[in-house]
Specification:
The chain is of the alpha/beta class and 467 residues long. Helix content is 15%, strand content 37%. It has one domain: 3 Solenoid (Pectate Lyase C-like), CATH 2.160.20.
């Protein structure tokens, strides 16, 4: 009997073990199925999002308004006689609002506090009329696709219209294939905010792509305190239409301050009278300005400028057309590479690398390595044109405690033939001592062992930098 009992007990143990294993595997399978369902839902959501977006068009500027985007079946449609504000208020989070191809007049601020996509079916324009100082304020993740936006009022300095604003909370927003026309910008503005047709503040991962900006009163784009801002394949024409008497501190095609990891690439900039082109200022960190074409205008200070910033690349830009005081300027900025650019025109110099002695950098940015002084600047494989004032390239320290140029230009090589101004102030208010050098002389000055040894750089170079 004991043998039989032992056998039954052993068999029951096997059965129980198999049952436990079966239940464990079933639970694992249920968990895996739940995970797959979650992944599938996420994937379907991403597919739906991607279906509404056309592939990146590698031509600067907007293509054709209201085309190229797939309209979801459950989209909320708005005719010209209906209120966009009411449609937005009634829309659930994540909805798509589609504007009829017509002119939609807006007379009060549209605040976007929940995520939506706004697109058009046909050529649709949002005309902001009356004293609408802030036409659109984005405070959540928003996509604006294929729409024209314009100020319906005359550009004046006394009745400013600050343009479209993406503020804190609008992380991940996309502005694509849009046209911005005739936004005045506010002037003067103590906070330096609200000067652009498009203003981007205190957010991250915002992308502006394939947009056209026309006739802006002060700036086309103005940003502050952004992270991972991308501006690519856009077209900018005629900034500073309000003809401000002085460009400082904000007037430019685009002006960016306190930006971390900002990418500005493949854009075309024209019409920048008495102002700047692409201008980075005050604590911009890890920046890329590449493959842009910037044409100067009478009174242009610099077509491209990095000021009080650090750890960036100014590369493969074409700044050969149009007058300017400088085509490229690196002012009080450290760990910057200027390479592969084509330069011409500069009533003072085509390339200016200068330290003027300012050190107004706060402790946070000092800890990141932005020093407010010129150091570790590399000037490599640039081509200079025949039209210049004093020098084609000018590298010098004009601070009250000047350093030899060799101490902050750590690598100079492979540049085309050019007349270089190389020197420093002797003392505060004293005479300036400059030596005239050639590219070949500078190539010989820098030891071969130093070439190719880049300083430590926290910013990764994008794969398409050399294309």
């Amino acid at each position: 009997m004991s043998i039989y009992t032992d056998a039954v007990t052993a068999f029951q143990q096997v059965v129980d073990g198999a049952q436990a294993e079966y239940e464990r595997r079933l639970a694992d399978a249920d968990q895996a199925i739940t995970g797959l369902r979650t992944e599938n839902a996420t994937l379907l959501e991403r597919i739906r999002e991607l279906e509404t977006l056309p592939p990146v068009v590698k031509v600067a500027g907007a293509v054709k308004l209201g085309t190229g985007y797939k309209i979801p079946a459950d989209a909320i449609r708005v005719s010209a006689s209906q209120s966009l504000h009411l449609a937005y208020a009634a829309a659930p989070s994540g909805a798509t609002i589609v504007l009829e191809g017509a002119v939609h007049r807006v007379t009060k601020t549209l605040t976007l506090s929940k995520p939506v996509t706004i697109m058009a079916d046909g050529e649709a324009w949002l005309d902001f009329e009356g004293k609408v100082q802030l036409p659109i304020v984005g405070k959540s993740k928003t996509s604006i696709l294929g729409i024209g936006l314009r100020n319906g009022n005359t550009i004046t300095t006394t009745d400013p219209n600050s343009g479209v604003t993406f503020a804190s909370g609008s992380d991940g927003s996309l502005i694509e294939n849009c046209v911005f026309e005739d936004f005045t910008g506010s002037w003067p503005v103590a906070t330096r905010r609200g000067t652009g047709a498009l203003n981007i503040y205190s957010n991250r991962d915002v992308t502006v792509r394939n947009c056209t900006f026309l006739r802006s009163g002060v700036c086309h784009i103005q940003s502050e305190k952004t992270t991972n801002l991308t501006i690519e394949w856009c077209k900018f024409e005629d900034a500073n239409v309000s003809k401000q008497p002085m460009m400082q501190p904000v007037t430019a095609a685009m002006k960016h301050t306190r930006a971390r990891n900002i990418h500005i690439a493949h854009n075309v900039v024209t019409g920048i009278p008495d102002c700047g082109g692409i201008w980075l200022d005050v604590y911009c960190y890890q920046y890329l300005i590449a493959h842009n074409t910037v044409t100067g205008s009478p009174g242009t200070e610099a077509k491209i400028e990095a000021e009080l910033s650090g750890f960036g690349d100014i590369a493969f830009n074409d700044v050969t057309q149009g007058p300017a005081q400088y085509s490229i300027m690196v002012l009080d900025s450290n760990d910057t590479r200027v390479w592969g650019n084509k330069l011409n025109h500069g009533s003072a110099a085509q390339l200016e690398v200068c330290d003027d002695g300012r050190r107004n950098i706060n402790d946070i940015h000092k800890a990141e390595g932005v020093t407010g002084e010129v150091r570790n600047v590399q000037i490599i494989n640039n081509q200079f044109g025949p039209d210049y004032g004093y020098f084609q390239a000018h590298v010098w320290d004009k601070s009250t405690t000047p350093k030899p140029a060799e101490t902050f230009a750590t690598r100079v090589e492979g540049n085309g033939p050019a007349k270089w101004g190389w020197g420093r102030n002797t003392q505060s208010g004293g005479a300036t001592v400059r030596q005239t050098r050639t590219s070949a002389q500078l190539d010989a000055t820098y030891p071969a062992v130093a070439r190719g040894n880049d300083p430590a750089r926290p910013a990764a170079t994008p794969a398409d930098l050399s294309t």
